[in-house]
Amino acid sequence: MRLRKVDWLFVLAAALVVLFVSLLPSPRDRNPPVPRTPDHQGLVSEKDCLRCHVAGGPRPLPGRHPKRQDCWRCHKVAMD
Ligand code: HEC
Ligand code: HEC
To answer: Is residue 79 assigned to a domain?
Structure first.
């Protein structure tokens, strides 16, 4: 099978996208860590985070915050 020129361009574009994404900084290192406050001690489930970090809760998430539930993927717990 012979590839046309546009097919090669497509493959090249896809490869560039993959390269670009793999070079993005790993999110966990740069995001605000979970502070060591009494509120954050003894939390065992990411579901607990939403008791406070919801709209209407004591500390709502900013509007542009990612709509994801795997909090610990991006916020490591501060260890000090
Ligand atoms: C009992 C309420 C409560 C619960 C539950 C809670 N938080 Fe918080 N969180 C707060 C409050 C209040 C602050 C602000 C603390 C401060 O600024 O001193 C805060 C701050 C944060 C911050 C830092 C924000 C910043 O500006 O640096 C992160 C990150 C965070 N929480 C993540 C989490 C995660 C992840 C969980 C679940 C494991 C969680 N929180 C559970 C009340 C809560
Ligand atoms: C995809 C990565 C990612 C996930 C998953 C994630 N966050 Fe965040 N979060 C961020 C980033 C990035 C910021 C900093 C946003 C900014 O500075 O505007 C942030 C900021 C925060 C803050 C600080 C908001 C403030 O008042 O300044 C809190 C609290 C927080 N996240 C809690 C949570 C909780 C709770 C969850 C799980 C429900 C969660 N995050 C899941 C990336 C994530």
So the answer is: no
